[in-house]
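Hey everyone, long-time lurker, first post.

I ran two proteins through the pipeline my lab uses and got sequence/structure pairs for each. Pasting them in order. The first:
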Amino acid sequence: MSTPAGIDPRGPRFAATITALLLLVATFLALIGISTESASSGSFGWFAYQPLADSTFVPGGLVISSSTPAQRALDPGFLLAVVIALLFLWGVVSPRTAPWSVVFRTLVRPRLSPPAELEDPRPPRFSQGVGLFVVGIGLLLHLAGVPWALPIATAAAFIAAFLNAAFAFCLGCQLYLLLQRAGIVGRAASA
């Protein structure tokens, strides 16, 4: 098995920056959406007891548990997470034609000096798959009516993308290298 041609290490960081911004917005939308909305009819603010109104908060559950799958699918946080999952899928299936790759290659890289060294494209591609898995699980659990699944999944993916964008620490790449050392991925084909 030959090693694929190297890629500019700044490309995945560029993509991680845009992905982190999208995931931050998706997390915010998921937090204010149906996934975390309380089903109680009273408007009590943050307090469980309001002496002036002589009312006590009685937990009524979350809206997501009584909503239909169609209502869950129309949640803005869910819709943005679907777009992000599709971008992750695109990065796994065809990383060369993925939108952030094309933007980096055509608009950003010509303005930069050549990289000091190229990196193996397999770890960043695996990392895209990990992002797809995490966001996909959040989407499926959200559709199933699990409260907080979508904001937790998008926040976890955001943390990974932010670490890559800000500190060049790719969690998915590190996971790939760990699995490669264990002989689970990246093994040479037997002749």
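...and the second, right after it:
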Amino acid sequence: MEHQRDVYHVHRKVKERLHFAAPEVQEGIRQSIWNHDKTSLALWLDTAESEAEGNDELQDVERLRKYLTRNWTYVEPLNQWQMPEKVHLIQPGACEAGHRIYSYRMKHQGRCWSQEGAEAMVQLITAMKNEEWDAVYGQWGRTAYKPISQRFKNIMRKVMKRVPMQPHKGVHQGSIGTYSSASSPLGKLAKRLQMAHIL
């Protein structure tokens, strides 16, 4: 089993340690890591060291250098690995790096979820993001609907029997008798209601 460092965390480490360096220096280090070029990386780290002002910034460069040396075999891109053709790579998918899609949907506006509802929503978001909708939907088709218990059926029968049928007379037509001029307040109200087709 092989291990690889997550690109997001490696880039964050570069940004944290080289907060004082120029953006092109940080980008050069990231490109060197991506190309897995140790010589180019050493040159960019030396450049960052020359830009450092003070002991703290020099220590940050040295910490980054040690971090990358320690993890150099784990930052090599997958497309450069020498692996047999039949090896199956397991990608982290949506859940590892894209947690925002879950937090925005699940926590927005103080929402709260039941255990079953939260699990179902997480499965749905993951399936849509990883394009595995058919597999999840097939699984839900077998388990989504619980059978209705006999106790629930009996309660519903009792409730329906208690409500007698009420006859409905339909819509009532009416009008406002103004018995005054159309310019009076009551006359104006009657005119507006007639214009709105309420009366």
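Reply from user beta_strand_b:
Welcome! Quick read of the second one: The chain is about 60% helix and 0% strand. The mean pLDDT is 76.
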